[in-house]
Amino acid sequence: MVDVMLMQALMKAVPDRAALLIVGDIDQLPSVGPGQVLADVISSGAVPVVRLTEVFRQAAQSQIIVNAHRINQGVIPDLRKPETESDFYFVEADNPETAVPRIIELVKTRIPRRFGLDPIRDVQVLCPMNRGGVGARSLNIEIQAALNPAGERKIERFGWTFAPGDKVMQIENDYDKEVYNGDIGFVADVEPEEGKLTASFDGRSVTYGFGELDALVPAYAASIHKSQGSEYPAVVIPVMTQHYAMLQRNLLYTGVTRGKRLVVLVGQKKAIAIAVRNVSGRRRWSKLSERLATKTSMSTDHRRLE
C-alpha cells in the first residue's frame, strides 16, 4: 500500500542508526500511488528477505487460508459445497438479477442466523467494481434499504441517503476531524434543524455539516481496493463476468484475505476462473529495483577493494 513518495518520506524520517523491518504481501493489490515499493525492494536483492509460504496444520483447518493460497498459486479455489461447517462458501448466481437478491439474503438473514454475526457491523460486501448492477454503488442502495430503511430522521445529499444506524465510509483524509480515507463508522444521529450529522468512528463522535457529506458514502458494500489494509469478520464477494475489466488474481486474493471468520463468493465459476488466471494487473514499470541492486553491487565492490 506504500507508494514511492510515502516510502521516500519514511526513509527520510527514520534515523540512520535505526533498523527498519518491512512486513507485507506483494501478491495483494499494489499501492494506489505510483510504484511497487515492496516488490521492488524484494526483487532487488539489496536486503535480506524471509518468505512465509508454508501452511501449518492449524492454519490448514481454515479454508479461507487454503483457498487464498490456491488463488495465489493460480489454482481455482475449492468451490464444492462443504460436507461440514466451513469458513469458505461459494453461492452460484448466473446473472445480476439472481446475484443481488442472494447477496441481500446472505447479508440480512443467512449469515447472521448461522454464524451469529451482526448484518451491519460484522458483514461486509466487497465488490471488484463500483459500477454495474452488482457493483458497490448499486448494492449499497439495495442493502441499505434491506437492513436500515430510512425513517423520518434522514438527510439526502450528493446522491446518498443517510439515517441513524447507517454504516458509512470516509472517502478522503480529514486531518481536522481525524478521520481518514477508508475509515468506517456508523451514523449516530441526523439533526435536520441543526443541519448536521453525527457519526461514530471507533467509539469517537465526529460531526459533519450537511455540506460536508460529500466526504461520506454508505459502506454496506465497498470496492476491494477500498478494503485494502482492513479486515472484517465476514465478507461477501460478488464475482461476475460483468466485472471482466477488473477480474485479476491479485484482486480476488486481496478480497478473500479480508475475511477473518467467513468468506462467501457469489457468482459464476467462469468469472472466478478468469480472475485466477489473469495476472496482467501485476505488472508496473519501475526503476527502483534496478537502482537498489546497482547501489548494492557498488557497495559490495567497494568493500572488496578495501
Question: Topology of this structure?
Answer:
Layout: H1 4-13, H2 37-44, H3 57-60, H4 63-72, E1 88-92, H5 96-115, E2 123-127, H6 136-147, E3 155-157, E4 160-162, E5 167-170, E6 184-191, E7 196-201, E8 204-209, E9 216-218, E10 221-223, H7 224-227, E11 232-239, H8 249-256, E12 259-267, H9 269-277, H10 288-305
Parallel strand pairs: 1-12, 2-10, 2-11, 11-12
Antiparallel strand pairs: 3-4, 5-6, 5-9, 6-7, 7-8
Helix pairs in contact: 2-10, 4-8, 5-6, 8-9
What are the defining features of this structure?
306 residues, alpha/beta, 5-stranded parallel β-sheet, 5-stranded antiparallel β-sheet, 10 helices, 34% helix, 21% strand, disordered C terminus
Report the major sheet. Answer: 5 strands, parallel
Strand share of the residues? 15-25%
Shape: globular
* Contiguous helical run count: 10
Number of strands: 12
Distance between the termini: 39 Å
Q: How large is the radius of gyration?
A: 22 Å
The order of strands across the largest sheet is: 1-12-11-2-10
Fraction of residues in helices? 25-40%
What structural class results from the helix and strand content? alpha/beta
Give the ordered list of helices and strands.
Answer: HHHHEHEHEEEEEEEEHEHEHH
Overall average pLDDT: 91
Low-confidence stretches: 298-306
Mind explaining what this structure looks like?
The chain is an alpha/beta fold. It contains 10 helices and 12 strands. The strands form 3 sheets. A 5-stranded parallel β-sheet has the order 1-12-11-2-10. Strands 8-7-6-5-9 form a 5-stranded antiparallel β-sheet. It has a two-stranded antiparallel ribbon with strand order 3-4. The longest helix is centred in the middle third of the chain and has 20 residues, at 96-115. The radius of gyration is 22 Å and the shape is globular. The model is unreliable at 298-306 (pLDDT under 50).
